[in-house]
Amino acid sequence: MNSVKIAKERIDRALNPRTVAVVGDKKASGYMWLRSMSTFQGDVFSVQIDPNDVPGIEDMGIPNYSSLMDIPKPVDYVVIAVPRSVAGFVLKDCVSKEVAGVGMFTAGFAETGTPEGLEAQEAVTKMARDADLVLLGPNCMGLYNPAIGVRFSRDLPAGQGGPVAFVSQSGGHAVSFSAAAGANGICINKVVSFGNGVVLESTDYLEYFAQDDQTEFIGMYIEGVQDGRRFFELLREITPKKPVVIWKGGQTEEGKRATSSHTGSLAESMDTWDVLIRQCGAIRVDSLTEMTDVLKALVSLPRSTGDGVGLIGGTGGQSVSMSDAFAKSGLRVPMFSQDSLDKLGEFFRVIGASYLNPVDIGGMNRDMTETCMSILSSDPNVDVVAMQMSPSGFARDPEQIEGQIAALVSARDDTQKPVVSMLFSPDPYGDGDDLKKLDLMLQEARIPSYPTYERAALAIKKLVDYFRFHEGA
Model confidence at 4, in pLDDT bands (50, 70, 90)? Predict the structure, then answer.
């Protein structure tokens, strides 16, 4: 089943709606869809005929109608949250109402592998395609557009857009990524969860966001594609212009089996995907954590092809561990230039400690930290600067924390080199509040932070590899 071509203008209207209707939201689910739309900047309508559910909808001040056709305004986007047995009737009303887009939360279609599910999917597919309806799903979470307040979870931030688009075959991963992005200071343009993808699927959304001026970075969770050649050709064309980060689900035999029961996808060989991603210059990740880490690096850090990392902030043993982590990732931890060593030698003669990369800055005041960071970041052998920070500084010396952040910002602004922070705690659960406070301070300063050496190193390595592949593009 191949996807169809729908005009970009129609997709624009579906993904940037001015009016939204929710069909079938219920008290039993806490009115999850209508409450999620409480941040929407346009008009929200409800369609519900169950007398047990209507009073709660009216108490929220949301106009409720017994039919989509009764809504007195044009509707751009509809959430369908009804049983499969009536989903087709609601979709027919969407066509008659000339709705642009539908997020069909309803499941029980081809992913079940049953004749009834397959038949029901064929019916909604034909109806949507004949009407050029942008059908997200079935079996999906639909659309998250934070700039205008369209959400598929009431816990997600709204009111601000950004440069990142995320396309997901999984509704759960779409929600999780949206939450992780918000927590990590990654501003989202749109997240599209498309489930079974009967009208538009991964390749179509890749093409759409490639043409979208507001999108600078594209993340994708993919279980399978319908037209591998078209996907490959588009990916090869897009990646020199916009980084595309791909998380392929179904990498093992067990995972492939799970994808067929999840979205009805046929998962191709992971070896094939790995070659495709590398040849196109896209970025492969293997988890939600990696997806978030890499996009945070892409959004926050300048273009860099250098792999020499200057490390700062660890004690003796930590310096060894940092060096190992970055070297194992394929990055270098080089000796500093002789000029830098001479300057650091004079500096450390006063305070003691090691400075041969990594640099130990324990006990330094703000001025000392900034001086040390200036020497390190200006070194010609250093392409990237990574500093370890600890939340224990809040209790011991809050000014030291502020001084370290100021030094990071100065290094970034003065040299235009990538600068990151690694947050170390031997008790991350016990220090949870302080770690979050420190991370938020770094987000405000536009310095990406990572909770381990390994995660920082891997994100930087993938960023460097991407820019090296497309050097000169």
Answer: low
Model pTM? 0.93
The whole-number pLDDT of residue 299 equals 97
Kindly indicate the confidence band of residue 394, based on its pLDDT and cuts at 50, 70 and 90: confident
Model confidence at 352: pLDDT above 80:
no
Q: pLDDT, tens digit, for every residue of 316-344?
A: 889 999 999 999 999 999 999 999 999 98
Note the pLDDT of residue 456: 98
Average pLDDT, the chain: 92
Find where tokens 């081809």 sit. 110
Question: How far is the C-alpha of 465 from the C-alpha of 330, rounded, in Å?
Answer: 10
Alpha carbon distance 139, 106 (integer Å): 5
3-state secondary structure the chain: CCCCCCCHHHHHHHHCCCEEEEECCCHHHCCHHHHHHHHCCCEEEEECCCCCCHHHHHHCCCCEECCHHHCCCCCCEEEECCCHHHHHHHHHHHHHCCCCEEEECCCCCHHHCCHHHHHHHHHHHHHHHHCCCEEECCCCCEEEECCCCECCCCCCCCCCCCCEEEEECCHHHHHHHHHHHHHCCCCEEEEEECCCCCCCCHHHHHHHHHHCCCCCEEEEEECCCCCHHHHHHHHHHHCCCCCEEEEECCCCHHHHHHHHHHCCCCCCCHHHHHHHHHHHCCEEECCHHHHHHHHHHHHHCCCCCCCEEEEECCCHHHHHHHHHHHHHCCCECCCCCHHHHHHHHHHHHHHCCCCCCCECCCCCCHHHHHHHHHHHHCCCCCCEEEEEECCCHHHHCHHHHHHHHHHHHHHHHHHCCCEEEEECCCCCCCCHHHHHHHHHHHHHCCCCEECCHHHHHHHHHHHHHHHHHCCCC
Q: What percent of the chain has pLDDT over 70?
A: 93
Looking at residue 393, its pLDDT comes to 74
Length of the chain, in residues: 473
